[in-house]
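ok trying again, last paste got cut off:
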Amino acid sequence: MIRIPFYKCEFTKETDPLMARVRDSFLDGGAKVRRTLGNAIERGQLPATLNIDRAITLLHVQMTGLLYTWLLLPDSFDLDAEAADFVDCYLASLRQCPTLAGRTAAPAS
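nice, full thing came through this time. structure:
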């Protein structure tokens, strides 16, 4: 049911080819991100212990949420003005977040 408001359509047998194309594009994008993150690790720009699968999922989650919020409430923030900061936040999380960088998270206090 959540797909209908999110995608503004219902996926049925007739829309299977469209969904397959969306899925293929999603997977292709993930493969490109995987290569990019791998290159950054090789260059020492990201931790060698980075959990790449989790980093890719986090990127998809953040981008989906960002675009959904912006489409729903376009006046709530200036996407053009803040886009670079959102990218910086994502990249900083890849370098610093213990659960992304393969380190153990600090115990909760």
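cool. Residues 39 and 45 are 9 Å apart (CA to CA). The two ends are 39 Å apart (CA to CA).
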